Amino acid sequence: MTQPNATHKDLQIQLMTSLPIIWGENGSLEAILSGAAKPSPIYSYWKSHYQVEPVDSLQDLLISDPDIVLLAQPPAMDPADIADLDRWVRQGGDVIILADPLLVWPSELPMGDVRRPLSSSLIGPLLNHWGLELTVADDQIPEPVDMEWEGIYISVQTAGAFALIADRAGENVQCRINATGFVAQCRVGKGRAILVSDADFINISHSEAEEDREADQLASATLFMDRLILGLHHQSRRKNGDFSSSSDKPEEEGD
Fold this sequence. Notes:
This protein is an alpha/beta fold and 255 residues long. The chain has helices spanning 29-34, 41-49, 61-64, 79-90, 124-129, 211-238, and strands spanning 12-17, 51-54, 68-72, 94-98, 132-135, 145-149, 152-156, 161-164, 173-178, 183-188, 191-196, 248-249.
């Protein structure tokens, strides 16, 4: 298997996100030209390792046909975009979705400003179509929690969880959820979807005061995302359709 952290500039990724990772919240042209606005460390890493294209719409997805679509706490999606994404995946496309039900992401923008990252994922209609729901405990207080997947540990602020909805999965959809509900892996028609119930783990700043901690956080986040991206890409090239692993089992077998 291809090793994480290697450069794959031929791997095309379309990124749709509400998170201020591309140029920060102050992403004006003036701020970009003056150097006041900087990409987040995770986005800089992706740009240096993959061919990443930020997009605001998926309406041309069937034509552009990237290797992977990455939805990182995406903005509210037009129903046509959701339909196009579902159709593209069913025809063999691969998608990674970071969907956080209770995002913890500091913002200096006022409440109601459309530039703020979404505090809760709005990807529910697509999840329901694939027979999934995203849950979070009503009384959960945001605090760091270490989540594990395939031997990789990442720190999240809230622990959301996916669950299967009985008799709701669309045609030709099969999903597996790991024991904690943190990661769902679905076969949708001829394509694949990996869904993660968190997005704030990629919130890594440029703070010098916490440089060591953030270096560790970036290393964990990039390793985790590389495993998802390269795992999907590897499976697509093999075209074997088997995404099961020892740490991923049907929900009824989980704790």
